[in-house]
Write a structure and sequence with these properties.
There is one protein chain. The chain contains eleven helices and eight strands. The protein is an alpha+beta fold. It has two domains: 55 residues; 226 residues, no CATH class. Helix 1 runs antiparallel to helix 2, helix 3 packs across helix 4 and helix 7 crosses helix 8.
């Protein structure tokens, strides 16, 4: 059912309450609306405001996103939020906080104010509608960012999916601590640059890069990494005055892989990056895939 129906219903009930209150005043001669009506109007106002916020945020259709093997909550498409500056401060500010820089990160870095950030935060953390951001790439694969708004266990999950897989694979989970193999810079750039335009999701390269950036896990980065992040921030509308310091804080706040890039393969046991040929291969072998699925993913990422 469309959310506009609920907004209209809230308006209708609120109007009826006000009319009823006016009738009570006329008949009683009192100049005060009964306390129960005041309380009811306040509740309706909050409900109506919340529904309007969801509608304006682009989640109004309430369509369902199905992710195979991930059925923990009500998933809804969130890509309509990507055109708003405050999405990026909510999504990336925590990564800036993880950096060792002395400058305190602020929402204004991303071109929005605290009020906008707070309103977006309520939408992103709604336990009745978990925003999902899909990043489709070559071979039918997709990286998916899920705001896991499970009461008592909220966080952000970064998944990899494919129609032929039994279930989604967890790339990373951020919920106060960080877990998962993550993405190498090379994987991140490859996914960013190869959108599948036939599938719903985020197709803009800058948005794709910034959505998946918190899943980055690599100790050493190439020389052009900061330039790429700066370009992405500029594209989504970040102020020029803060782009450089913001890009540096984001990359400084990334998770560093352990010595040797150690990972565990469900197919062939523990391996080191040096044994698999590259950190990228070590990351892929940490996923619970069959050999055929693994080879397909390798082709999509190379």
């Amino acid at each position: 059912m469309h959310i506009g129906y609920f907004i209209h219903s809230a308006e209708t009930v609120a109007s009826d309450f006000r009319e009823y209150g006016a009738i009570r005043i006329q008949h009683s001669g009192s100049s005060e609306i009964p306390a129960v009506l005041v309380a009811a109007l306040q509740i309706l106002s909050r409900i109506q405001g919340h529904l309007l916020n969801l509608s304006g945020a682009g989640l109004a259709d309430c369509s369902v996103v199905l992710v195979k093997g991930y059925d923990y909550g009500p998933l809804v498409p969130g890509e309509a939020l990507l055109g708003r500056a405050e999405i990026w401060s909510n999504h990336l500010l925590g990564m800036c906080w993880s950096s060792s820089g002395a400058t305190r990160p602020m929402p204004e870095w991303f071109g929005d104010d605290g009020a906008d950030t707070e309103a977006m935060s309520e939408t992103l953390m709604d336990d009745q509608a978990w925003p999902v951001f899909r990043v489709p790439f070559d071979g039918g694969h997709a990286a998916i960012v899920v705001y896991r708004n499970l009461l008592g266990d909220c966080g952000i999950d970064y998944l990899l999916t494919h129609p032929d897989w039994n279930c989604a694979q967890v790339l990373a989970s951020c919920d106060g601590s960080w877990s998962g193999p993550g993405l190498t810079w090379k994987n991140l750039v490859r996914i960013t640059a190869s959108p599948d335009l036939t599938t719903n999701g985020a197709h803009d390269p800058a948005e794709r890069l910034l959505l998946l950036l918190p899943a980055l896990c690599q100790a050493e980065l190439p020389a052009d990494a900061q330039t790429r992040v700066e370009a992405a921030l500029e594209t989504v509308g970040a102020p020029n005055s803060s782009i450089q310091i913001m890009a540096r804080a984001l990359l400084d706040g990334r998770r560093h892989s352990g010595p040797g890039g150690f990972s565990k393969s469900p197919l062939s046991g523990p391996r080191l990056a040096s044994e698999t040929g590259s950190p990228e291969m070590a990351m892929l072998r940490a996923l619970n895939l069959t050999e055929t699925q693994h080879d397909g993913l390798v082709r999509a990422l190379t």
